[in-house]
């Protein structure tokens, strides 16, 4: 009996050591993922900041930036769409490491490019790497961490996207060189690649994560429903709509305020800053409360807030009230993307969700450009003021699709 007690005590101690090691690795890995999302956001927007200097330095026409952005968008889209198949074959750790290495080398290539041809060539690995990292990390966080962290990592992406142009601006004003800006950001990306390589060697990514909740939810749902093409298409469409709504508001709000409502240009310029700042702050608060309220309640509440904020801007000409409306609108949008992304593994089997998240990220890339361009055509032919009615309509469509999907999956759980 004494021997059995010692053996039992030894087993308990061993389990505690393993649990501490597991928690330590999960925390370390989460810190790396947060840093990865910051670095993922860094290159976004720096081309626009650097382009006047690049154009002057390399004697390029203005319109060539459009070719680079189109190439970047196309490569990111392709990489996102195929990422699910690649992730299932090679795993998130290897794909993320190779992708970060690609983006770091591509940004370094930008820094030393002697002409436009080299810029275009380095755009291919930059776009492919960004698309794969985005899809891979979103999938990994959705499968292995709570919705709180999904909201916060997207907040960190916003932080990276905000400081990227600041780094480039400092390089331009402090050193007079866009090359130093790209070089600095490439060093950050390559440092991340080194961290990922070390984590890969140490086996941190291979720790058995606590995904029982997600797996149990997935396995309890009828598999035929999970593989329905219609259901998957609706889940993809939500991301297409979301980025279209988010980008369209940022793209057209200043024009509406200046040209249609007579708001001074300086004040109108603050609106977009307030808009994205409210999304970032909204994701911080969403992360605090989402584990208590749940993804679906956060999405519903966010949609209601966004519609309310859009209505405030639509019906008021007072600048203070319009600023309040755009703030409410941004806070409302904040939880939609991360909460819906986190819900994908809960609704679909793991093999399906990884591929689906890649399609969702790809649809998000497409939605921002197609919807905003389509809205631009409507506004130019009718009235700038229609922007708010169109966005509210798109939010209502999003709401209907979300409720249809929610009822469908609730029905499957009950049936199962």
From TrEMBL:
GO CC terms in record: plasma membrane
- Location (main, coarse): membrane
**Which chain positions lie within coiled-coil regions?**
none
Question: Which keywords describe this protein according to UniProt?
Answer: Membrane, Transmembrane, Transmembrane helix, Transport
Residues annotated as domain Major facilitator superfamily (MFS) profile: 29-415
Q: Which residues cross the membrane?
A: 64-83, 95-112, 118-140, 152-173, 185-207, 233-255, 267-285, 297-313, 319-340, 361-380, 386-405
Membrane topology of this protein: Multi-pass membrane protein
Where found? Cell membrane
Highest taxon listed in the record's lineage: Bacteria
Give this protein's Gene Ontology molecular function annotations.
transmembrane transporter activity
Gene3D superfamilies cross-referenced by the UniProt entry: MFS general substrate transporter like domains (1.20.1250.20)
Read off the InterPro entries from this record: MFS, MFS_dom, MFS_trans_sf, MFS_Transporter
Per the record, the similarity remark reads: Belongs to the major facilitator superfamily.
The record's section on PANTHER family has:
BYPASS OF STOP CODON PROTEIN 6
- Name of this protein: MFS transporter
């Amino acid at each position: 009996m004494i021997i059995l007690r010692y053996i039992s005590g030894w087993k308990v101690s061993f389990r505690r050591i393993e649990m501490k090691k597991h928690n330590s690795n999960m925390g370390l890995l989460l810190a790396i993922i947060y840093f990865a999302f910051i670095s993922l956001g860094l290159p976004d927007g720096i081309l626009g900041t650097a382009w006047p200097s690049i154009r002057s330095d390399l004697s390029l026409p203005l319109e060539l930036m459009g070719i680079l952005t189109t190439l970047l968008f196309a490569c990111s889209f392709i990489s996102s769409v195929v990422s699910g198949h690649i992730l299932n074959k090679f795993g998130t750790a290897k794909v993320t490491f190779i992708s970060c290495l690609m983006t770091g080398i591509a940004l370094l290539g930008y820094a030393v490019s002697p002409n436009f041809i080299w810029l275009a060539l380095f755009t291919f690995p930059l776009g492919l790497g960004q698309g794969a990292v985005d899809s891979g990390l979103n999938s990994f966080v959705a499968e292995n961490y709570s919705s709180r962290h999904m909201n916060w990592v997207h907040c960190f992406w916003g932080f990276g996207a905000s400081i990227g142009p600041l780094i480039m601006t400092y390089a331009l004003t402090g050193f007079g060189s866009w090359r130093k800006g790209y070089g600095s950001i490439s060093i950050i990306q390559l440092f991340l690649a080194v961290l990922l390589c070390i984590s890969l060697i140490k086996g941190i990514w291979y720790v058995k994560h606590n995904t029982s909740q997600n797996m149990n939810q997935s396995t309890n749902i009828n598999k035929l429903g999970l593989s329905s093409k219609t259901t998957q298409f609706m889940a993809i469409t939500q991301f297409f709509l979301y980025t279209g709504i988010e980008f369209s508001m940022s793209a057209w709000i200043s024009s509406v305020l200046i040209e249609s409502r007579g708001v001074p240009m300086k004040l109108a310029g603050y609106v977009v800053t307030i808009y994205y700042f409210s999304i970032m702050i909204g994701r911080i608060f969403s992360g605090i409360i989402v584990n208590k309220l749940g993804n679906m309640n956060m999405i519903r509440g966010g949609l209601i807030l966004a519609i309310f904020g859009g209505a405030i801007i639509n019906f008021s000409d007072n600048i203070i009230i319009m600023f309040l409306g755009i703030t409410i609108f941004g806070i409302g949008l904040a939880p939609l993307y991360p909460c819906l992304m986190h819900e994908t593994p809960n609704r679909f089997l793991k093999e399906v969700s990884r591929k689906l998240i890649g399609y969702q990220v790809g649809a998000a890339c497409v939605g921002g450009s197609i919807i905003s361009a389509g809205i631009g055509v409507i506004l130019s032919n009718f009235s700038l003021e229609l922007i708010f009615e169109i966005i509210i309509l798109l939010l209502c469509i999003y709401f209907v699709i979300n409720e249809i999907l929610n009822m469908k999956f609730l029905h499957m759980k009950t049936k199962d």
